[in-house]
Design a protein that fits this description.
This protein is an alpha+beta fold and 98 residues long. The chain is built from 3 helices and 4 strands, in the order βαββααβ. Strands 2-3-1-4 form a 4-stranded antiparallel β-sheet.
């Protein structure tokens, strides 16, 4: 069953725009490969009352598909520039239609 993943990313103070640019570049580069692995796409949103936070809402074919991508060492390498811009760990919640 398809799932949505809601990811909250808190940038280091004043670096949300830089984080947004890095994420868009990363998704442009990895998008086709992610689709082959079960990604159905997603979008990034700025939190209106928090100038340092982004939320990604992503669709995946299954939670297992997303888990496989996230546990792949290549994903960790690709995410390194993103992680450098974060104030702390990101929070991800996987949900499915009730």
């Amino acid at each position: 069953m398809a799932v949505k993943v809601i990811v909250q990313l808190r940038a280091k103070p004043g670096r949300r725009d830089e984080l947004t640019n890095v994420l868009h570049t990363l998704m442009a580069e990895l998008g086709p490969a992610l689709k082959e692995k079960g990604s159905l796409g997603g979008a990034f949103y700025e939190v209106v009352d928090d100038p340092d936070t982004l939320v990604e809402i992503a669709d995946w074919e299954t939670a297992a598909a997303r888990d496989a991508v996230m546990s792949d060492p290549a994903t960790g390498e690709a995410m390194a520039p993103v992680l450098e811009l974060l104030a702390g760990p990101f929070d991800a919640t996987v949900v499915e239609l009730a």
